[in-house]
Q: What sequence folds into this?
């Protein structure tokens, strides 16, 4: 079956394209919201995860890795695996490296300071995205073969707090 080239133009004049064997009538585009991104980045729901991350890194830094790196014991034959001194040394070096990385991440920060630092990092990422124009562009989230499907997809995106628009798909000749 021959492929058809589709396009749609958003409010800002940018073209969204798709080439497919399927039939499309509409496409849905969204514009991420800067204020919503700021709210998400500073939501209190992050705190529990960041606290757990801090505790995890604390354990690793103290040498009590909950998921230690072990020598590779997979065997390429039916014989039982045999660890060489090199296997053991590599596992030991990997453990030491994880300990050093965990110490750098924690950097002596108390738990509450670590949580605040992580929040600052998320907010900084939102600001960098804003400066790069991420909140000024329409992003295509799906092409639909029926208007009803496009309406449903747009509603789903708006329920997530995004600005959504339904565009009519046109065939490129």
A:
């Amino acid at each position: 079956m021959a492929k058809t080239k589709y396009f749609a133009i958003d409010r800002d004049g940018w073209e969204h394209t798709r080439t497919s064997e399927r039939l499309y009538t509409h496409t849905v585009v969204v514009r991420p919201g800067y204020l919503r991104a700021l709210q998400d980045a500073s939501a209190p729901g992050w705190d529990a995860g960041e606290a757990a991350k801090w505790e995890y890194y604390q354990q690793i830094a103290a040498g009590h890795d909950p998921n230690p790196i072990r020598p590779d014991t997979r065997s390429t034959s039916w014989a039982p695996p045999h660890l060489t001194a090199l296997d053991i040394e590599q596992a030991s070096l990997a453990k030491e490296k994880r300990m050093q990385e965990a110490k750098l991440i924690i950097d002596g920060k108390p738990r509450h300071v670590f949580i605040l630092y992580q929040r600052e990092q998320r907010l900084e990422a939102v600001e960098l995205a804003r400066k790069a124009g991420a909140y000024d562009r329409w992003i295509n989230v799906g092409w639909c073969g029926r208007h009803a499907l496009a309406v449903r997809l747009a509603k789903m995106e708006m329920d997530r707090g995004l600005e959504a628009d339904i565009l009519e798909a046109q065939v490129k000749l």
